[in-house]
Automatic annotation (TrEMBL):
Protein's name in the database: NAD(P)-binding protein
Top-rank taxon: Eukaryota
Family label: Belongs to the short-chain dehydrogenases/reductases (SDR) family.
Record InterPro entries: NAD(P)-bd_dom_sf, Sc_DH/Rdtase_CS, SDR_fam, Sec_Metab_Biosynth_SDR
PANTHER family, per the entry: 7-ALPHA-HYDROXYSTEROID DEHYDROGENASE, OXIDOREDUCTASE, SHORT-CHAIN DEHYDROGENASE_REDUCTASE FAMILY (AFU_ORTHOLOGUE AFUA_1G14540)
Keyword vocabulary terms for this entry: NADP, Oxidoreductase
GO molecular function: oxidoreductase activity
Transmembrane domains' residue ranges: none
Pfam families hit by this protein: adh_short_C2
Amino acid sequence: MADAQLNDFPSLFSVKGKVAVVTGGSRGLGLNAASALLQAGASKVFISSRKASACDSAVKTLNALPGLAPGAKAISIPADAATLSGVQHLVSEVAKHTDHVDILLANAGATWGAPFDEHPDSAFTKVMDLNVRGVFNTIREFAPLLQKKASVEDPSRVIITASVAGLGIGTIGKQGTYGYSASKAAVIHLGRNLAVELGPRGITVNSICPGFFPTKMSNGLLDMSGGKESIAAANPMKRLGRPEDIAGVVVYLASRAGAHVNGATIAIDGGAMWAKGQLNVESAKL
């Protein structure tokens, strides 16, 4: 077996010259990931979400980052990833700027909390449409652009933002996130299927599963679950997630370092999911 070729180690975690699309990229984890990709050398990072003003604001922030590669830029393309027409609009607008896409971060998502007996059908439908159907449509519609420059040596990458709620039990009770948890479990398994389908086309598909990060989407649930300090104290790492925790995993999967990772699911929660399981076992002993 040939020795590992590490003579170009400095480029191992680089995405120099790559073109990326980040749905749900105007805030929170999506914006953190987009910032990381741009700073890691991406030439173009397309930011998409439903609100044009949010996309424009995010792009302004990203383009003001110091030390970007010459000519590197973030580009705003508002679109609704929950609808097929919205996804198709996004693809057509991206295609006006580039003939290929190297990295697709399917990050757009929604949640809803309500008691089981009162959980609205409309809310369940909204969450499943964006978190599962929207992700499938986004990957399918972008596949031709992802295949354009994909190769065995340098595959294109799809990264799905799932959640630890899709790996275990999500929030139940007064603010039960039944649709959200089910949707994240579904999209993780969708990613596994697409990894096998798209691998031969030179496209890897992996899922990241964040735990609690202080973002606009999760802050309300953090407060209802006992507060940030309490949740952090219960984590084996004694803290919540930070922007660099997401950034590092996304850059790893998007760079040469992650070229042979396909169909994986990576939890980014400091081990909180396993600690929760331990607490449940201890409670059962009492």
